Structure formats: C-alpha cells, structure tokens
User: What shape does this take?
Amino acid sequence: MKDYINVIGGGLAGCEAAYQIAKRGIKVKLYEMKPKNFSAAHSNPNLAEIVCSNSLKSNLHTNACGLLKEELRLLDSLLIRIADETAVPAGQALAVDREKFTKRVTEEIEKIENIEVIHQEVGNEAVNNIDDILINEERYSELEEMARCGIVVVSTGPLTSDKLSKEIAQITGQDKLYFYDAAAPILEKESIDMNIAFWGERYEQEREKEEDIETWQKRIGTQKEESYINLPMNQEEYEAFWTALVNAEIVTLHEFEKREIFEGCMPIEVMAKRGKDTLRFGPLKPVGFTDPRTGRRPYAIVQLRQDNSEGNLFNMVGFQTNLKFGEQQRVFSMIPGLQNVEFVKYGVMHRNTYINSSKLLDNTYHLKSNPNIYFAGQLTGVEGYVESIASGLVVGLNVVRQYLEEEKIVFPEITMIGALSSYISTENENFQPMNANFGILPSLEGRIKDKKLRYTKLADRALESLKEILQKYDK
Assistant: This one.
C-alpha cells in the first residue's frame, strides 16, 4: 500500500476528509481540477466553493442541521470552524461570506504539510464510454489504477466531470442517477427600494430556549436581530407576479435533464405551477410579519438574505430558478422594492449526480465491492453543505483507521452523523438524496407531543452519545 491516500475532489467533503486524514499524520494527495477545468456551475478557483445558497441553515440544537453542526464542532470539523469564523448576519442561521469562506479553506488546506494539492482532472482520456472498458477487461480506468495501489476517496460532488462519471459508473456497476439543483439570484443591496422593504426575521417567535440564543450569540458574536430584508406584496401585486412567473420562459432542458427535479431544491417557477397559493404557503409565506406601511400582515412576502460580510449583496431566499436571465430581470423586478434592482448573479440550474449508495456503500461510506474505494459528499446522496462535510469527516476518520489496520468508527444511529450514514447505506428501492432531519433518528421511548421538547431530547441524546464515542476513540 502507498504511503499516502488519494482524495479526488476539493469541495466541502473532500477538504474535510483531507484535513481529518492529514491531521493524523498521514499524507494526502488532493486532486482538484480547478482552475484548469470548471464545471458549468463553478467559477471560483479556490477549494470548497459554495455554489447555491450561502446558508448552512440553523444553529439551534432543536433544528436537525443545527444538531449536525454541533456534532461536527465536537469532532473538530475544519469546514464548520471556518464557517463560524466567516459568518455573516442571518438570524438563527449560520450563513457565510462565500468568498472569504472558500479563500480561508484554501489557505488552511494548502498550509498543511501532509496535504499536496494537485490541480488535475482525474479520468482516462482514452475512455470514451463504458463499453470501451467492458470490451477489454485488461484495460483499467485511472480511478481503478489508483485503487489498485492504495486507498482512494471520491468526493467529486454532484457536478462530477463526464470522464470521471463514466469511470464511476463502470466501477459501481450501476446506472447513474440524477437530480437537479437550482441556485437563487444575488442582488445589490443599494438597488433595493427600502421605502418599501423592511428589516425583520420570520422566525423570531421560535427562539423559545434562552440557552440556545446565548450559545448562538457566544459562538457567532453579537449580530443585529433583523438579518433579512423583507418585500411585502398585496394580493394584486402577488397575483400579477405569479401570472408572470408561471408564463415566463425557462432555459430549454437537454434530454438528460428531463427527469424528476429533486424536491429539496425546487425551482420557484415549478413550485408556482402547482397552484396559485403554493408560494404563499412556502417561501413567500407572510406568517410572522406586519407591513410597516399598512400595519397589517402582507398577502405574501419575499425575503432577501445577506450574502457577504460587507452586507452589500443579498440573495433571494427560496428563489432557485431555471428562468432565462432576461426573464429573471423582467419577472423578479415586479416584486415591490425590486423595480430597479441590480442583479449581481442570475439564478442557474445545473445537473447533479449521485450514486445508488443504498446498494453500494456501507455505513462508513466504503464501497462494498472494492476495499480501497470510499465515496463522500453529495455524490453519495447526502443533500446539503453540512451533510457533505459530515460525510467527509466520517470518511476521513475511517480511511485512517483502515490504513492503520484499526477498527472502524461506526457512529450510532441516534446521532445525526450516524443516522445519515445509516440512511445512505440501508437498501432502499426508492433511494434519493436526504437532508439531515429528525425523522431519520430512532424514536424516543414514550410519546412526546410537544415537538420542541421532542427535538430537544433527541438532540441531547445525540450529543451525549457522541461524547461517549469521543471518549472511546482519539479524535
């Protein structure tokens, strides 16, 4: 076996895995094709680029993703530490300045002596299709060659290059599965009409646990409570916007894109077509707000979330879209307060790829059919930034233990990390990507009707279990 471990892909999962391996004294070769090659959705040359929303979701323990982040903090996650350090105001959520975040991750990874970053795309140029490999059994792909000589972590994400996707398909023996992710537009704050817009946070009433707020404030620092810009709409304005949205032109999809869109990141125009009031019960719900101009609850409301530290860029919450750029300008400018808005970046829609992990991987993200291959990140079917980081951490810990011929760490299913690992590795004929959620945790003994109390007890149980794991294994 070689004296180093190959990690393919310098995204969130790959960087976390590389860090966890390197900090334990083992060398890593981290392959990242940027800046030589970019996917259709990437543009930043740095590692760990955040493509869609800049939010890593809630920090509260009574939120599933908040619990997952706290577990990762206990396990010394590099990516979560940097996210905390580059946070921007976002109420109870952890949102980051995406430029500072990716720059800091790159700086941290590049200064680690045990990590060699190789800017090179992995994939055999000679392999034009899967049949080329299958016809000649003696012909190995580049990924297979790596795995013949040592441990390989594949963390190339949902936008894996075509060359490597073909090699993955050959190695796994499974047809590739697709879902589609859409990114929301980013706007200039100065172009927003603040005579119409107002500051405020939708979920202030849900901050019921004083200890949660104190913990959050100590970790992130003092931030103004009003972290979102809100754009109220009356019924006439909303219905005119809805009509324009459902009739707007979208980018023509290729044949391979004409499949089911993943529910967790539904383009707003697709959601709108499900009914005139669908948006008002989703991302445009007005609950918890009063329009300062009228003193009444708006008919609908659009929220904008800060996107950078300077506070001059805001993204449209829930407005992932596949509309043509010109249509985005026309339709979204109909929203009160955005009539003269300047778009820094239009929304885009792109292909995401994942493997059928429920049949292919175990609960350490290890490929069952090959002792030297692990997968990590959204390629495995964990959906979300924090979930990808968690998978990278689990893989990093366990490739080290395999390398040292030690017992692997299997996280208990009562932890969110363990529940995600269990979900992706449990055979399911209808397998599809999954976010962290309390529904995948084993139930508590006895029925607890109060949801807040139930989530608190689930979170407390998870953290206590994780602390026991830390006592057993050297983190």
